[in-house]
Give the backbone structure.
Amino acid sequence: MRRSEAILVLPADQATHADVVLVASGVTEETMSCIEEVSAASANPEMRIVLVADHISKQRLARAVWHGLVTVLPRLR
């Protein structure tokens, strides 16, 4: 990711204060658990999640939306 004044990549110990969390992964149960944990630990009630993935099932999509997912971007190969 290129540097930008509009984007600040937070260190892991400040992740709970993020406005947006980017998840780039295949959507497994481990990925879903990570999304749920990030959402639960967030100190920012406005935090949103962006997912970059090849595919997500309807059931997992509904779960992820409940935890703050706002968009799914297709992974380009």
User: Anything to note?
Assistant: The chain has a mean pLDDT of 91. The domain at 18-74 is CATH 3.40.50.2300 (Rossmann fold). The radius of gyration is 13 Å.
